[in-house]
Amino acid sequence: MWCRRLSHLQSRLQDLLRGRVTCWALQQPNFKSLFPLAIHWHHTASKSLNCVWQQHEDHFELQYANTVMRFDYVWLRDHCRSASCYNSKTHQRSLDTASVDLCIQPKTIRLDETTLFFTWPDGHVTRYDLDWLVKNSYEGQKQKVIQPRILWNAEIYQQAQVPSVDFQSFLETKEGLKNFLQNFLLYGIAFVENVPPTQEHTEKLAERISLIRETIYGRMWYFTSDFSRGDTAYTKLALDRHTDTTYFQEPCGIQVFHCLKHEGTGGRTLLVDGFYAAEQVLQKAPEEFELLSNVPLKHEYIENVGECHNHMIGVGPVLNIYPWNKELYMIRYNNYDRAVINTVPYDVVHRWYTAHRTLTIELRKPENEFWVKLKPGRVLFIDNWRVLHGRESFTGYRQLCGCYLTRDDVLNTARLLGLQA
Ligand SMILES: C[N+](C)(C)CCCC[C@H](N)C(=O)O
Ligand SMILES: O=C(O)CCC(=O)C(=O)O
Ligand SMILES: [Fe+2]
């Protein structure tokens, strides 16, 4: 009995998710369904505006600016920008969404110039500017990317001749900072030159664009190959391309590296655009791209060295995409730190390994590798959600300092400077 009821509820839920049932009340036979609304298109008085709209029983349809848009009535009520529903000083909603009848329909709809007026059953009036609707509709959003980027391999990046920004202009001018951030957003890496080779100056740089993300490695970190921590980063060994902190639920957004000293050989830094490689996978094997974006895995950091005891676990797929436009926003790739896979059945796991191989082959193509020797005075910022880094083995004494930044705060700075982020 209990089970039957549950499965009934489940199938109702599925119906609802598929949009088969508009609302529960409409399930009952009623006069509305016997005499459906006469559907006709409303055209605007002025032909040049090129706007037509239709009031359907369960949604509002609008054609404007070459876009066909469909709006749910609860959505239209919920986004009302009237003074009683929305606080325009704080940009916060005052309306209690839970108080909106889920079967709400407007009593009347009227277009005046470029403003649509919805009058609701209780008399409340909501007004929408047509351009606001285009900008904020699902259909309008779907055509746009959240983050414009230039995907690169070594040749594309070198041909682009992306200029580095000078320490002084980065710290003291708005243009310097803006140029730096624009390049960083487009390419996922950027350099600042002529930085005094100290931890304090590196910290100053970081604080110019973001809050520093303190982690188990500290706020600003400073490391050599002394194995003071239980991770191969603290050795002289080569490190294959990877992203850092894959074992956090939210991997660190940005990594800052400043090599303060190196007396020895080797130790070059490797950079690979993970989004360029993922794009190749999407072109060549879309089903593998999809698998890499659907199968969640764990990454893990277990440390028991000296006084340091840590056990971190982060869960998520290798490729993270926005579901509405399939835009890639984060790659989690670290074969050293990938944990035991126990969340995937054997047949899927085999397909996952195949897809992972395809991605790895792309990531390892020599033409995708950009090698650079970090030197005192030249600070490198890496988008750790996009660009993989690695290093060549080295000899001698090498000191690296840097920090992680919170992604939200870097993007915040970029948006305040007028950049799309
Ligand atoms: C950068 N710093 C030396 C502080 C930490 C290095 C962390 C290394 C770790 N395997 C990871 O990939 O996350
Ligand atoms: O030593 C290096 O150049 C980088 C090591 C590394 O991958 C890291 O610290 O995250
Ligand atoms: Fe790393």
UniProtKB/TrEMBL annotation:
Known cofactor(s): Fe(2+); L-ascorbate
Domain Gamma-butyrobetaine hydroxylase-like N-terminal as annotated: residue spans: 54-133
Keyword match Oxidoreductase: yes
Swiss-Prot/TrEMBL keywords: Carnitine biosynthesis, Dioxygenase, Iron, Metal-binding, Mitochondrion, Oxidoreductase, Transit peptide
Gene3D superfamilies documented for this protein: 3.30.2020.30, Clavaminate synthase-like (3.60.130.10)
Reactions mediated catalytically: N(6),N(6),N(6)-trimethyl-L-lysine + 2-oxoglutarate + O2 = (3S)-3-hydroxy-N(6),N(6),N(6)-trimethyl-L-lysine + succinate + CO2
Gene Ontology biological process terms in this record: carnitine biosynthetic process
SUPFAM superfamilies per record: Clavaminate synthase-like
Pathway: Amine and polyamine biosynthesis; carnitine biosynthesis
InterPro entries according to UniProt: AlphaKG_dependent_hydroxylases, GBBH-like_N, GBBH-like_N_sf, TauD-like_sf, TauD/TfdA-like, Trimethyllysine_dOase
Keyword Repeat included in the entry's annotation: no
EC number: 1.14.11.8
Any one Gene Ontology molecular-function term assigned to this protein's record: trimethyllysine dioxygenase activity
Function: Converts trimethyllysine (TML) into hydroxytrimethyllysine (HTML).
Subunit relationships: Homodimer.
Family: Belongs to the gamma-BBH/TMLD family.
The name this protein goes by in its record: Trimethyllysine dioxygenase, mitochondrial
Species in which this protein is naturally found: Balaenoptera musculus (Blue whale)
